[in-house]
Each structure stands twice: as structure tokens, then as C-alpha cells.
Design goal:
Layout (H helix, E strand, L loop, with lengths): L1 H16 L36 H13 L1 H22 L4 E11 L5 E12 L6 H67 L5 H15 L1 H19 L32 H4 L1 H22 L4 E10 L11 E5 L2 E3 L7 H67 L5 H36 L7 H11 L8
Antiparallel strand pairs: 1-2, 2-3, 3-4, 3-5
Helix pairs in contact: 2-4, 3-4, 4-5, 4-6, 4-8, 4-10, 4-11, 5-10, 8-9, 9-10
């Protein structure tokens, strides 16, 4: 009874003395609107459906199921969940069994035996266990957010590589068209040379332009292979053995729905890397609580149950129950404990700075994507106009050259300008499609955060957990 009374007094004293550290989650300063704000339209929860490309939908679905980085993140999430369960179990009494048997050889041989139970309970009077649970819960939440962030990044990477694969395909098609056009010009120039109407220099110039165009084939093939191999890795396939199936739609994928950027503050609840940084900040706050707990007394209550009187025959004859209280009172450590608290606070300051930096980076990614979307839309319109004018100029130059009214230099120049404009339009259309991918990756609009993680973590994550659901 004296032990119990002493233990309860320390529980009371420790409970009054301990104040669990509460972390203030300052919302980073965010402008009310983005600097470039395009008119919103229907934002699909699954943003890549906005390209209306079944092949892309299939590739991303496969990637989200088979990608190895996502699998690794899922395994880390399971590990964090198991560690959280382990930390919570420390709040319960721990009981272990003991037993031994032997033979006493002195005098008459006698078989000896002993058995018993050993128990330990930590009432957590200084709050250390609670802080450790909060730290593990924050780790669990962070692992869940990082798994969702892998899905965000993998979906964006697959879409980007698919666009590059389609871009290289369009470049190859344009290469064939350009080669045919320049071969026709070379035939015309050769005929005129054979008829004495053109110099051999003109033949050489036309042949050089054709060779220059054909030389691009290898570079396009490299880009196409790079994109196919990158897609293979993202889908957990062996590079060199995979190529996307042919699409029923021609040209570069066109995004048809959006964007709907919302407001900058939305990033705080949609970007999974920001949420992961927030969980890491909560973990740092819990670490402060762990170190602060070491400044106050701690209490553990061990108990024993011994069975028998030491002989084999009397194994179940006697029972002995023991209960104690083990108290650890910090007195002097040369300042070590307070230094560890100061270190934990400094780590929390670093995590806060990282949290703000990640938010600013995300904000910059959205702004850059919005500017790029606007710029490439204008560029595509201008390039389409340039192609239309270039086709007219080439047609006129061809007619004039056949009549001997203009030089080959003018014809080749018109031809080069048209080919360059067509190449630039393909690249610009691919860049526009990639900008939409970058935008949706930046705003975190795939809705892949697992709510179960937050519910599991809420028991020890801290006050902020309910705000993250």
C-alpha cells in the first residue's frame, strides 16, 4: 500500500509538472491568387483523363499498380504502421514468463525448479511515451504522404515520357515529309542542271539540305528510345523490351479540360510533399517532448510472481507476489539533458524552414506551369500562322523557280523556313502538353491521399491531425 501510494503521488506530480509540447503550424504566406490565372473549367479528379487518350490512361494505370518506387513507399508505410503499433503497445503492461530447472549434485541429488512471471508497467508520468507515440504517428503520416507523392510523381513522369514518345513519332513523320519534299526539289534542280538551266552548285546545295535533314533521323531515334526505355522502367519492365501501343489519335496529345488552379493556399492540403514536410515538422515537435520528458522524474512499476519453493516437487506449493516502484529523478548531468532539448528545438526550426521552402517551391512550380501554358498556347497560334504563310511562300517559290524567275537560294530558304516552323510547332505542342502535366503535378490534383492513414495517425499525431483529414 505504501508503494502504491508513493507511485500515485508521482503520477500526480508528474502529470501536473508535464506539459506536452504543442507545435504551432504557421501557414506560410501565400498570395490570394496566382500571378497567371487561366479561366478554370471542369477539373477531373483523375487529371490525365483530360488528354482523352486511352493509351495514356492504360500506361498510368499500369504504372500506379506496378511501379517499384510506389511499391517501396508502400513497404515503408507498412513498416511505419508497425512501429506506431509497437510504440502504442508500450502504454500497456508488459509481462514475461521465466523458468529454470536443474539438478543439485551435492549430497543427495535433488531436482530443482523455479517458475514465475515478471511484469513491468510504465504509467508515463513525464509524458515520454505519449511523445514517442506522437513521433511514430507523425512518421506514419509522413510515410503515407510520401507514398501518395510517389504516385503523383510517377503519374506525371509517365505522362511526360509518353508525350516525348509521341513527339519523337511526330518528328519522324515530319522527317519523312521533309525528305520527300527535298528529294523532289533535288530532282527538279538536277533536271534543270542536265538541261543547262542551272549550275552544278545548285545541285550540291539541294543535296546538302537533303542530307542535313536526313542526319536528324538518328537524334530522333535516340529520343524515342530514351522515352520508351524510361516508360519501361516506370512500369517495372526491362528497358529495350517495351514500347507503348499505337494510339488511335494522331499528333501530340491535347489537353482539353482545364486548368482549374484554385488558390495558392490549396497547395497546403493537396500537395503531398508539403503534407509530408508538415508531418516531419510534427515529428520534430514530438522529439522536443521526448527530450523534455527526460528533465522530469519517471516512474516504472515492476512486479513479480514466483511459483514453488525451489524444489521440483514443490513447484506449485508456494506463491510469492512482489510489487515495487522504480523512480528516476534527474539531479545532475552536466547540462546534457537541456542541451538535448535545445538540439531538438533547433531541429524543429530547421524542419519549419524546410516546410516553408517546400511550399514556396510548390508555389513556384504552379506559377511556372501557368506561365508556360499561356506562353505555349500563344506560340502555337503564331507557329500555325507561320506554317500557313510558309506553305504559300514555298508554293510560289517553286512556281517561280520552275520558270527561272527566282534563284534556288530563295526556294531552299522558303523550304527551310517551312520545315523549321513545322518542327517548332511539334516541339511547342509537346511543350504545351507537358506544361499541363507539370501544372497538375504542381497543384497535386490526383486525390490519392489515403484517409485511413490519417485516421490511424490521429490518435497520436497531435491537434493538427484533424485538420489534415
Amino acid at each position: 500500500m505504501r508503494i502504491a501510494a508513493l507511485a500515485m503521488s508521482f503520477v500526480f506530480i508528474g502529470g501536473c509538472a508535464h506539459v506536452a509540447p504543442e507545435l504551432d503550424f504557421p501557414v506560410p504566406d501565400a498570395p490570394p491568387l496566382y500571378a497567371t490565372n487561366l479561366p478554370p473549367s471542369g477539373l477531373d479528379e483523375v487529371w490525365w483523363h483530360g488528354f482523352d487518350d486511352p493509351v495514356l490512361d492504360m500506361l498510368i494505370a499500369r504504372g500506379l499498380d506496378e511501379n517499384l518506387a510506389i511499391d517501396a513507399a508502400a513497404a515503408r508505410l507498412r513498416a511505419a504502421g508497425a512501429l506506431l503499433a509497437a510504440e502504442r503497445s508500450d502504454r500497456l503492461p508488459q509481462v514475461d514468463g521465466t523458468g529454470d530447472a536443474g539438478v543439485a549434485l551435492a549430497g543427495d541429488s535433488e531436482v530443482t525448479a523455479a517458475a514465475g512471471l515478471f511484469g513491468l508497467f510504465n504509467p508515463d508520468v513525464n509524458g515520454r511515451l505519449a511523445a514517442e507515440i506522437r513521433a511514430a504517428a507523425a512518421d506514419y503520416a509522413q510515410a503515407g504522404y510520401l507514398q501518395a507523392d510517389e504516385r503523383r510523381l510517377v503519374a506525371a513522369a509517365i505522362a511526360s515520357q509518353y508525350i516525348e514518345y509521341r513527339r519523337s513519332g511526330e518528328q519522324l513523320a515530319l522527317l519523312e515529309q521533309s525528305t520527300d519534299l527535298q528529294e523532289q526539289t533535288l530532282r527538279i534542280v538536277t533536271l534543270r542542271f542536265e538541261a543547262g538551266l542551272a549550275a552544278n552548285l545548285d545541285v550540291r546545295r539541294a543535296a546538302a539540305d537533303l542530307a542535313q535533314t536526313q542526319a536528324r533521323r538518328g537524334l530522333i531515334a535516340i529520343a524515342r528510345a530514351d522515352a520508351a526505355n524510361a516508360l519501361a522502367v516506370l512500369l517495372a519492365q526491362a528497358p529495350g523490351t517495351f514500347a507503348p501501343p499505337a494510339s488511335q489519335t494522331a499528333g501530340i496529345p491535347v489537353y482539353l479540360r482545364g486548368p482549374a488552379p484554385g488558390v495558392p493556399a490549396d497547395l497546403l492540403r493537396r500537395r503531398t510533399d508539403i503534407l509530408a514536410a508538415e508531418a516531419q515538422l510534427a515529428r520534430a515537435a514530438a522529439e522536443i517532448g521526448i527530450e523534455r520528458a527526460d528533465l522530469t522524474p519517471s516512474l516504472t512499476i515492476p512486479g513479480t510472481l514466483s511459483i514453488g519453493n525451489g524444489t521440483f516437487g514443490g513447484l506449485f506449493s508456494d506463491f510469492l507476489i512482489g510489487l515495487a516502484a522504480a523512480i528516476d529523478i534527474p539531479i545532475f548531468d552536466g547540462g546534457r539533458r537541456r542541451a538535448e532539448v535545445a538540439a531538438a528545438r533547433a531541429v524543429a526550426d530547421a524542419r519549419l524552414a524546410e516546410y516553408r521552402a517546400i511550399f514556396l517551391d510548390a508555389l513556384g512550380e504552379v506559377e511556372n506551369a501557368l506561365v508556360a501554358i499561356d506562353a505555349y498556347q500563344q506560340r502555337n497560334a503564331a507557329l500555325a500562322q507561320a506554317i500557313e504563310e510558309g506553305e504559300t511562300a514555298l508554293s510560289q517559290s517553286n512556281a517561280l523557280y520552275r520558270e527561272g524567275l527566282t534563284s534556288l537560294f530563295d526556294l531552299l530558304d522558303a523550304q527551310r523556313q517551312l520545315i523549321a516552323s513545322r518542327q517548332s510547332l511539334i516541339d511547342s505542342e509537346a511543350a504545351l502538353a507537358s506544361s499541363f502535366v507539370a501544372f497538375h503535378a504542381a497543384v497535386g490534383s490526383d486525390g490519392q491521399v489515403n484517409a485511413t492513414i490519417l485516421q490511424e495517425a490521429a490518435g497520436g499525431y497531435g491537434a493538427r491531425a484533424t485538420l489534415l483529414q
